[in-house]
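Lab notebook, bench 4. Still working through the backlog of constructs that have no structural model yet. Next entry is a single chain of 261 residues. Request: give me the structure tokens for it.
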Amino acid sequence: MIYIIAALDAEARALVDYYQLKRDSALPYTLYTNERIILLVSGMGKSNALMAVSALLGWKIPKNTDILINIGICGAPAAYEIGEALLIHQIQDETRRYYPDILYTHSLRESPLTCVDEAQSALHDAPVDMESSAIFQAASRFFKLHQMAFVKIVSDHFAPETVSKEGVVELIRSNLDALDEVCSALEHVQSPDTLYTEDEYKEVERLKSYFTKAQGSALDDALNYFRLKHPTMPLPAYPDIPDSKRERKRALEELIAHLTA
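Model written out:
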């Protein structure tokens, strides 16, 4: 399942038409669905985004192969072209920073993003939006970092008064190919069949069987991270698993540190 979060009705309009989505009244938010996609219109601002995304993911709990994409417009410095699609690798909100994992190839320009409280006329060093940090906070309770992507379309150079609803619809419509590209890349890296050979997958499962469910999940994340970051490298040799619970925990910590270094 693909979870798409947009803040504005105008951002959602082109998506509804393109993916042939139907209105769904399951939640007290604007929601569109088909058999593959859930599109949520969160409303503008961090508070609205946090509540809406939390409600959505509490209602429809994601599976470990599902993905989430936040698509919307952003203001940006003049170095970014109007209509340019950006893939966000860092979200800053005051003193906090959030980092979606981009462990796949793509053709978009990667950029940091600053999440602000209101539309900006003052110049900033990076593109800005008003929902991304809240979406990240709510979604990260359900999705791992490599299951999320933030795609922003440059709508203005800190001149929000120039942005119209019709213009927003067209900006999203002109970047549907970019959205499809990110969706396909994200979906591809979620499947274990694309990460491991059959023998590797069996060995990973055998290794995880020595640990608790929580420890095995942490090891799984580290192994996936290693393979996504180094797709052509073989998995590291597995250490002998100690009998002692304390030594086993230490061995796991050392292995995870090695895989994620």
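Notes after review: Residues 76 and 127 are 4 Å apart (CA to CA). The chain has a mean pLDDT of 91. Flag for follow-up if needed.
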